[in-house]
Amino acid sequence: MTVRLRAHHLLCLLTYVGKGYSPAFTANYDQVVKRLGEGEGVLIVSGPDDICAPLLDEPEPHCLRESAAERDRLAARDVGAFLNRPIRAGDRFVLDASSLAGMREAFSAGLTRQACSGCEWSGLCDAVAAGGFGDTRL
Fold first, then answer.
1. How many whole angstroms separate alpha carbon 7 and alpha carbon 87?
2. pTM of structure
3. Could you read off the pLDDT of 66-108 as tens digits, one per residue?
4. Which residues, including other chains, have CB under 8 Å from residue 48's CB and lie 6 or more apart?
């Protein structure tokens, strides 16, 4: 199995502490994080992914909006620059402890945060990063 992720969720995973849009969303996110923590690979997708799944039944899911696609574009650019490799739909890799630590370091330094501009969760993510990512689930 492979976890399907859109590019900006590579950033969201870094600060995920069990909060989300709804109980169903959070339960699903916990399952995605569990799979990644067990070493399951990542497949970068364009558009809604495994994290978005519980939101797709809403009348107008935000994950289908252009703002989410723009976050993906910016995250792919910034994370790709940090990792010294392009991040594109169809890419496959594993998020191991070393890559997560490096990505968290870049996140804390603000190197990969442009995609977070205007996100309603940005304040929470700032606090998690400032606290050293201690309560994160991945």
1. 7
2. 0.96
3. 999 999 999 999 999 999 999 999 999 999 999 999 999 999 9
4. 6, 55, 56, 61, 63, 64
pLDDT classification of 38: cutoffs 50, 70, 90: very high
Q: Which long-range contacts (CB under 8 A, 24 or more apart) does 51-60 make?
A: 51/5, 51/6, 51/9, 51/12, 52/6, 53/28, 54/21, 54/22, 54/24, 54/25, 54/28, 55/21, 55/25
DSSP string, 71-120: HHHHHHHHHHHHHTS---TT-EE---HHHHHHHHHHHHTTTT-GGGTT-T
Nearest Cα residue to 81 out of 45, 46, 111, 42: 111
In the block, tokens 């994080």 appear at 33
